[in-house]
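Write out a record, focusing on structure:
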Amino acid sequence: MLEELRGLGPLEAVHGNMDEPALRQELPERLVLEAEGLRIGLVHDAGSAGGRHERLRAWFPECDLIAYGHSHLPEVTRAGEAWVVNAGSPTERRRAAFHSLIVVRAGTPTLVRLD
């Protein structure tokens, strides 16, 4: 599946807690990248929701936007100088009320409801 996604275009990713060992070895736990003039931190973050924003800011102190996963619950929040976002999921909404993704334009993230 990872190779199929890479075939669609540039891809940056981190591993999650449910990924198989081979994928966990191929992908990092955390990643910082630059896109569209933003410094972006990526992490799955299976840790507790309590203190999450503080934990994310400590891991990625120089980032403009921090994207995390795990909960499948969409979030777009300003935490200090950075945006903290969780796209939810376009496929497995689990406890979320709707399927979703995030689009970032001109440095501002927008949650997009898919249903």
